[in-house]
Amino acid sequence: MFGAAAGFTGSDQPRPGTGAPGSGYPALVLNADYRPLSYFPLSVWSWQDAIKAVFLERVEVVAEYDQTVRSPSFEMRLPSVISLKEYVRQDRSPAFTRFNLFLRDGFRCVYCGSKDDLTFDHVVPRSLGGRTTWENIVTACSPCNLKKGGMSLHKSGFSLPRKPQQPGVHELQAQGRRFPPNYLHETWVDWLYWDVELEA
Ligand SMILES: [Zn+2]
Question: 0.85 cut: is pTM over it?
Answer without folding.
Answer: no
